[in-house]
Amino acid sequence: MQVRNAALASRFPTAAIAVRPALATAPAGIQMALRQGEELFGEGDEAEFFYEVVSGAIRSCKLLSDGRRQIDAFHLRGDIFGIEAGPEHRFSAEAIGDVTVIAYRRSRLAALVQDDPAFRDRIMTATLRSLERAYAHMLLLGRKAAPEKMATFLLDMAQRLSKDDENFELPMTRSDIADHLGLTIETVSRTLTQFVRSGLIRLLPAGRSIGLCNKMALRKLDA
Amino acid sequence: MQVRNAALASRFPTAAIAVRPALATAPAGIQMALRQGEELFGEGDEAEFFYEVVSGAIRSCKLLSDGRRQIDAFHLRGDIFGIEAGPEHRFSAEAIGDVTVIAYRRSRLAALVQDDPAFRDRIMTATLRSLERAYAHMLLLGRKAAPEKMATFLLDMAQRLSKDDENFELPMTRSDIADHLGLTIETVSRTLTQFVRSGLIRLLPAGRSIGLCNKMALRKLDA
DNA sequence: CGCCGTTTTGAGCCTAGTCAATGTACGTGG
DNA sequence: CCACGTACATTGACTAGGCTCAAAACGGCG
Predict the structure, then answer these.
(1) Residue B99 has pLDDT above 90, yes or no
(2) Cα–Cα distance, A4 to B69 (Å, whole number)
(3) What pLDDT shows up at residue B111?
(4) Do A223 and B64 touch (CB under 8 A)?
(5) B111, closest residue in chain A (CA to CA)
């Protein structure tokens, strides 16, 4: 933890640029660039900052003692994450590919929320949306079969990271997808292959670029 | 939905009592009594109120089109639930056994949050705790095996509804537990029987009254 | 060109689900 | 008071979806 915080601290002087964030009314934060796989914070770290994604994707995850991993959420452009009720982060956050985020000091949260109604609204809405997403994802994890999980995931990703709602480039590996959906990479791969064979999706060689051919059928699977 | 809201509306004149809630600083809400199984609101209903549990237990759940159910959370005394970012409730809430709740008008939320810092804190903390709980539960749903799920559940329940952290009375049925843990009632029952045989728990006839005999072993299972 | 990480595919197994029957507690009414 | 019905819980036998282990194929990059 010390090592990680030291790394974080040392990154600030060099990479830090005070910025106006996307939302004009929100207060200034510090923009930072992260490389592929870099850890923003770990489970148990002091929750000194919370973050907004500017570009790229962040995964927030939890681990069991034997290494099993659950990715609770993927955070994309505009998403806010890392706000905590207690003093510590309760999950870790890592960059998927290269990422830019804005870091806000947690110590300023209370004051900001007090003084800036627009910022307060944004924080509150972001938190409630996260909870909404979490509840929907619990339904997926607890009650959906593998093909249903994949269909839900693909439709969600299409909506979140595609312009036309049909063609997009996944930022994450099969392993990330598996740990998000409560499956193994083999099942993820097999299910995608099935979808291609049934004409539901196209899969460009490389495996990351996906096109939805039959959204109706995917929605039906989604249940 | 109309029927439900009508029932709600008609309940108010008779059962409504303006109250000071548990937390002195929070503004008054309307106390209501619910019977076993009664629905407080359904998925898609207008989010006119949010709630605080005074006594008893509430389950919040989501359904798939074919009836599969996921119980996202059990809300116990002191818990706040039903706040939404959008105009509609995104899950339904039902009474487990007889329940008393306080209903707060959603339309007053913004003003309350604006004017009452203590109330704002309470709402924010409650929401963040729900999110924390949700993330922990996703790890359970996505990555834990049946005995691990049961162990986690029992330890959590002991902490939340027992005085001595060891003996407690479950308010919910096996079916509720199964739909919360992503299992079937048969697996829940079998796992509990296994725990009894291994001396981890005691199970009073009736099946609802549980005593933890070996919390160490349960924690180890919890992973 | 050859290495490495990622993805795909295959074969066999195991955990939890399904289907079915029995057991138990409780409330109602004869 | 007991017979009955209902809802909930337990137990058993069998099945299947997804996991494990293993190997091959692919793509990007030095």
Answers:
(1) yes
(2) 41
(3) 86
(4) yes
(5) A117
